[in-house]
Amino acid sequence: MMLRRCVLTLAFALTPALRPVQAQADAPAAVRSALADVPLPNGTILDKGMFGRAAGRVMIDLSLSPLGMTSGDGFEMFKLAPADGSILTNAIHDAFRAQGWRMTPLPALANGDQQAWSEKNSRKLYVYVQVKGKNPQLYLADAVPAKPSVATNGATAKAAPLPGSPTSAASPKTSSAQTPTTTSTTTSSIPASPTPTSPTPTVSSYFYGSTKFDDGWLSTAKPNWVEVTKGDITVFLHHPRPVDQTYESVLAEQTRKAWNSLVAPRYRDAKALFIERFNVGDFESINFAEGDLTDAATGRSVHVVLMKKNIPSGRWTEIVTPDKATYEREFGPYLVERTNWNPLLALLRRNRFGVGPSDVSGTWTDDWSGATEMVYAGTGWSAGLMYAGGSTSVVFGGGRYEWSTTSGTGMTGSVKWQSQTKRGTVSVPDLWTVTLVNGANSEAERYNAWFEAVSGGRILTLDMPKERGYPVTYHLIRAK
């Protein structure tokens, strides 16, 4: 089983130096990054142009791919005032540090562009400064797992928000919030033919089936979703389905189909149903619907919100509260373009489960690829297709591991490939750590580790701590 991620962007205009087109001249001024809450140098301009952002997003994804990551929930692109590249980069890094962000510079690219990790609390941003040309540019992007994780056998892991600071496992804890059933009813659906619910997947066996977070949230892996509860609030992080990948030119139609298949069958007596019919969320659109319903299983009146941000790690998120006031106290009101989406998007990070001693046994794989068709802005002639891709295969068993990696980058026709294999011993000293000891040089590699639940299985995330000097994250799927 493999997950593939391929980005193909056709005919983005580049300068003769093969760079994405610069920000639109009429882009609004900005002096602060909303993504990082950091003041930026004087003369900074926020680029909200659709084509410029699309080209910038592809470039950032290609830059992140060799690091085993992708851009996630947030993305910003700025045009900077002309200045010396090193002075400009240092000023930006200093501005981040002043706001409590921990900066880890990465090796400069061959073209001189600067890149770095910026970390604060449990968040990791990729900071990319394009220093060449008359108008330098700054790109900021959330760096997240590209794929989301299932299964329970009753054990509960207790964890702090950061997987790098775990606490010991605790005994199972039963949620007092209602558990949805599959009672069939369409009285709470948004008018139109409902989409059938996908078949119930098989639940695999992993040691930790739930996680207790220090701020009171409890996550439990289920066959069709991850159930996240705190007090009288229940959240369902629905596992992605093939039907969710179907393109819909009308955003409201996509929301309606998801509501009718994920929400409507478990509720009745709908009141005040609302579905957002306009494109909110800027370049990365957001689906949103809400209503007052009656839970078909318990008979209780509830307020239900269904939303999803259309990003690689996005998934349909269903929030169930006793009433609308409870929802707004926890997550804030819906204000269309002025909505603060961060509390809702943060729920996706609750899909984390500890790693048991025998959970990693087997073969785990991942592959990735990205390509950009490039043309010269002056002539429109093709400049070729830039490609980056690779694959990773890791075999764990009997306390040992074999790790094989193949990667290639370059223009099509001249892609340079390289491969590496290493072997040694593996241990799981605690539920949030996997340690590999290289048999060739006895060098130990300590990874922050956790599972994410997906339909029918889990994704194993191995995150190399930054003290290793070159942070990298792997997202592995069990092949056998």
List keywords for this structure.
globular; 3 domains; 26 strands; single chain; 480 residues; nine-stranded mixed sheet; eight-stranded antiparallel beta barrel; disordered N terminus; 5 helices; mainly beta
Would you write up a description of this structure?
- This protein has 480 residues and is mainly beta.
- The protein has 3 domains: 139 residues, no CATH class; 196 residues, no CATH class; 117 residues.
- It is 11% helix and 42% strand.
- β22 and β23 form a beta hairpin.
- The termini are close together.
Percent in strands? 35-45%
Strand-pairing-aware structural class: mainly beta
* Helix count, DSSP H or I runs of 4 or more residues: 5
Integer count of domains: 3
Quick one: overall form?
A: globular
Major sheet attributes: 9 strands, mixed
Mean pLDDT, to the nearest integer, reads 78
Count of individual beta strands: 26
**What's the gyration radius in Å?**
23 Å
The strands making up the biggest β-sheet line up spatially as 10-11-12-13-14-18-17-16-15
**Residue share in helix:** 10-25%
